[in-house]
Predict the structure of Cytochrome P450.
Amino acid sequence: MEIEKQFYPIRLINISELKDNKMIGVNKENVELVVVNNHDGIKIFQGLCPHEKELLSFGEIDEELNIVCPAHQWKFNSLSGENKCNPKGSLKTFYYEIVNGDIFIDKNELLDHKREMENAPAQRQIRIKTLKDLPGPKAIPVFGNSLSFLSKMTKVHLQYEEWAKQYGSFYKINVNGEDGVVISEASFIKEILNQRPYKYRRFKNIRPVLEEMDVHNLFSTEGDEWKRSRKYVTQALSNKVLRSFYPSIKETTEDLYNHWERTLEKTSEIDVHKDIFNYSFDIISYLAFGQKIGTVGNEESKIQNNYKRVMNMIQFRIVVPFQYWKFFKLPKDHKLDNDLKEIKEGIWKYINEAKERIRLNPELKENPTNYIEALLQATDDQGVYLTDEEIYPSIFGTLVAGEDTTANTILWVLHYITDYPEVQKKMREEITLVLGDEKFLQVMDDSNELEYVNAVIYEVMRLKPVIPVIALTTNEDCIIGEYEIQKDTDVFLLSHYRDQESCPFLKREAFDPERWVESKSITFHTNQSNLIPFGLGKRICPGKSLAMVEMKTILCMILKNYEISKSDKENKVEDHFNTTLGPSKFSIKIGRINAPVAVV
């Protein structure tokens, strides 16, 4: 006789909290779930995408009733959980019962799923080692190895890499008197990134620095606070918002084209660093503020200069051994206070103007045209809006994440395709096929057709990730490989220099975009996880889609209209690290492909 399985109920939510064709993320017993309400009734699925463990509740339900993962746009049928991208990666469905409007699932089934998700290969019978067993560079009292970094700030990642070559894929360093571990083995880097934000958090020095400056935002939040903040930001950077904002991206791209056309009347050489950074700042500030700053073709704006100085000071204060400014301030610290004051006043001016626009145009509540409008309407799972105190740092965080990272990646692409003219030619052929007679990419979704352009961008990010060293801190005692790493230990992941043995795909042979060409295949999705400029797992960058669209749009404009090559007076292009990894300054020569047109 078969014994009927006992149902041990555990409450999730009340059905009154569900909206039609919407989903809510729920965490029970430290297991992520997503509850979906559609025309076929309520469905409960595992809450993590089987691809890279991103929270599905941060995604959206599309017109075809698919759950769309926000990380890499994997789609799952919201009725069955079927994976539209990989048949082996469908979502687990949970049985539930409803009592007096409350939804209950079986605790046994939940815990079985948890054990299945945590089921790692059998533990190797090895002696667990500690940091004391790790090799590493010699430290000096009080400062440890910090002075090595402070003396090489523009090439700090190369110091980490040099030590990795000397001491191996696991070694220890000492930062201001505290031991930390540096890891360059690809498999462990992926494992650690997938275990954020609960097992690992951002480098412990980051949050106090940002809180002191009153700009604590999604970048520095952790745990449940991060989960709540991420929900708002993901809504404000959804594909729906980006489609509404795309005309502003196109307008800024036309500004750059017109600036270059005017420049060509005088010279064939372009100050590409200045122009690309101004272009990227114009787009991210246009998105963040809802108003055009207009630095392309002009001098840098005041808020842009304020922002750059603040970013340099944030980087400095995170790594400096002694927080002297709490006792006395140097001129640069007084300048920082003034810059922060002016930035805050400027951002609040834009926030109040956005509130007034929404009041006068109620349709913006449902169809926001930029980040600030969307952020003012975003809610968490309980329908709670952001407070005024949370809005300002969130917008500041968008500026932090959105200018240097994208601008430097574009510059690296331009550097590589001037060195590889055959790649530039192949990109231009694809762009011409997609754009036809147009000079610019007209529709955001057309960027999805640029498979080879996408491959070039991915290959550049493989070789030159803009965040070459990812600094984290453990939230609990952890076992990484054969080493026990105690709570509150700093962990530094080398995304620029990674041990290749565990992943042949990462072998650093010559620049080769062809490895990414199979963009429709499952292999692409598998290899995509080896690319970590946007992060992995739950903390993958919510601005990934914006960055990719921006990069494809400007590359379409450049390569559809111009041949580009390095300046004749060009020196060797080298790595230059200043908050993000970019190329040292270079100029490009451009020549028109088509006949010039009148510029207004």
Observations:
- The chain has a mean pLDDT of 82.
